[in-house]
Amino acid sequence: MTQLQALVFDWAGTIIDHGSLAPMGAFVELFARHGVAISIDEARVPMGLAKWDHIHALGTAPRIAAEWLRQHGRSFSDADCDALYEEFTPMNAQSVLNHAALIPGALEVVQDLRERGLKIGSTTGYNRPIMEVVLPLAAAQGYVPDNLVCAGDMDSARPGPLMMVRTLSDLQVWPPAAVVKVDDTVPGLQEGRAIGAWVVGLAVSGNTLGLSEAQWLALPAEEQQRLRERATAELRAGGAHYVIDSVAQLPPVIEDIERRLAAGERPD
Does residue 153 have an active-site annotation? Predict the structure, then answer.
């Protein structure tokens, strides 16, 4: 094995929805409906997890758990999480209608990768009902990956490897060292590390910064660099072999990984 066989992309913050904005308002509104105020920054912390796991992580975070107990007279439970998850899915499905634009450069990069003979896989923390809304919106813009594995398709999701195991099976590629996982969240990177793939983190386009393209471009260069460095450090600490701003910068990384593979290197 001296060449790559496939890339596996996350969705929100990676291929679509610069800043991964679609879920955030839904999480805030969800808890507000139940008398608990949470901030966007708090809502972002578990990003990348399956959405049930994300809601559970929020509901059991110390400050939010204390407020839930005060409002409801009981601790946040799995049954509460089940109920909130049922509310959340249609809210997020509605939100993605306004946050499904491809991230600049994504389509061109994917087309370049296909021309190199690479397969294009995808995993997501979204569930199937949400992705049933997203898929036609992405396809209308020209993005149709070779597979899709959603949170809920497997017994466990990120940061474990099972969604990646299913993806490699769908794509009929092996070994994992011939695969690159591209993601904007630490749990998404860790699912790539868990199976032994190369992992590339996205510092600017995704959840780590949480900014739309317009918000990012409006910042002074010094502030952009400060935020870029902070996000890069977080993604590096989360296991990224490489960190770039967005998928638009991916081709040189692919060339470097292929060089390293040809030299006998494997992901550490």
Answer: no
